[in-house]
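2024-03-11 09:14:02 INFO receiving multi-entity request
2024-03-11 09:14:02 INFO entity count = two
2024-03-11 09:14:03 INFO echoing inputs for audit
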Amino acid sequence: MLRRHKLPLELACKALAAPLWSEIDRMPEQEAALMRSVRAVYGPAMLNGPFAIVLGFNGGMVALNDRIKLRPLVAARSGSLVMVASEESAIRAVMPSPEHVWAPKAGEPVIARVKGMDWPIHGDLHLGPAEVSCAVTGVEPACEEAVEVAV
Amino acid sequence: MQQTYVQPEFRVKIDYDKCHKCGRCVQQCGWGVYDFNERPLPHDEKCRACHRCVTYCPAHCITIEKNTLAFRDNDNWSADARKAVWRQADTGGVLLTSMGNPRPYERIFDKLVLDACQVTNPSIDPLREPMELRTFLGRKPDSVAVEMDGKGGYRLAEGAGMKNNVELAVPLIFGPMSYGSVSLNVHRSLALAAERLGILMNTGEGGLHEDLYPYQDNVIVQVASGRFGVTPELLQRGAAIEIKIGQGAKPGIGGHLPGEKVDREVSATRMIPQGSDAISPAPHHDIYSIEDLRQLIFALKEASGYKTVGVKIAAVHNVAAIASGIVRAGADYIYLDGFRGGTGAAPAVVRDHIGIPVEIAIAAVDQRLRDEGIRNQASIIAAGSIRSSADMAKAIALGADVVAIGTAALLSLGCHLCQSCHTGNCSWGITTQKPELTRRIDPEWGAARLTNLVNAWSHELQEILGALGVNAVESLRGSRERLRAIGLGEQTCRILGVKPAGM
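2024-03-11 09:21:47 INFO inference complete, emitting structure
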């Protein structure tokens, strides 16, 4: 979906954990049209059953819950640090007083991006091993700057 | 005249001690079984076992029994085979019949079982959790092209996204049954029910009566080889257009509506003279290749403002290759009609011996289209004896997007499968144009019964999905891993893409 169909990460997550039709029907028309097409075209990619998955990549991290939230997922953020876990207590064991703690809604992806780094599938993944490690070493100073959090 | 050797199939028994002598049986029977002389006197040879008189007898004093006349045992020359020869020797004609193939071929649906979740992946309770059945009928784009909307989100790129699909609340539609073969009140019932259920009815090849114009957004209009009632206006009215190439009950042959059923209204809708036989040719005389079909598909699209255009074919031996050609010709859906599909009239020899089961056809077509990477270009509608929600679930698991029901819909309106639609004497008022019979169906009552049936099947499909641990019907589509076969041969299992139970 990302590489061949050039779908943005957010929409690929929506295809895997699709919003309910009843939710789509209540969306503004432009968004509803988009989600109707995403569901109809990528319906076979929809994941059923309980899951909470975390996917790390060179440019950031995605956490995704199943579409009716059968598994727990909690996210927290302090400055440029984003954490996800199945329980808030696990987060607080590592980071006792985060600035924000929230429970993402079913199927709402938590996407943390390292500022200045694009989604790697279109770029970094095609770099040679040496270039990839260069790219990774570039993460830390960038992290100090800021993290975009899309919920 | 010489006596026929074919004895009555049924015995009409009346308990005269209980009989009110009211004559209602005489009035109800469309076959003229009863004479009345102080009490009803049945002529067994006319009885079709349609149970109309049994149902409406106020004294419950009528029963129909099989004529158990003994024949000398012979597995090879069954009683039916002997009777067929006698009938043909009597008449010299093709034996006509109606409804679906009744012969004891293997019923594959009955040899497939569905999966359920236990422990590791929880089942879902449809009474407590959402369970989605919405389905879109038509061509899907290869991908969804998007662009930034300037507000941090995305929107469909110019001209991208799904186009001209028909939204169905349930993956089930009413199959094509033409006005002419069935009565206008049946069409009204189907249209009303389709509108209330958010699904579609199909006009069949007889055009759309003007009384149904208010329901046009829930109607598939059919273009068959006879082109009855096909006008630019008809194409504009339908929610989708269907080119009928073949029918499961009679692959390779056309249709024949006897002149007795062509009254004034049917004649106006079909645009043929009153009382004349409506004979649709076996082939479309402008389609002799996939290229010709493509021309017709695009002509219909041009004429209708690019509506969904589907092609209905009978399931036959090379169905996968044929379906591939149809999709490449530009069809937005393929309607596969299995050899058990019903009909209003067909030669018995064709109905009983031509075509293949729809289960095989669904699996073969779905697999072929996937292998060729064009499965997204067309929806698959499966029909040809979908008898229950279980059949519907199994058909979807084998690869169908939507199923269509014809016989089941008529059963809900009172049909008793007496296989005599072609006579035009239907006592239930379904497959007749005689006003005294057609008025037996009130469209409101019919629509309520059809709505009940589809709602019941929807609830059952939701229960099945819940047991499977999925909460949207698209997750069942083509999910053959959730099926297992019991007692099917290895080769059939391979074609179906289904493992035997225990594997």
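2024-03-11 09:21:48 INFO post-check: The CA atoms of residues 484 and 503 of chain B lie 8 Å apart.
2024-03-11 09:21:48 INFO post-check: The two ends of chain B are 64 Å apart (CA to CA).
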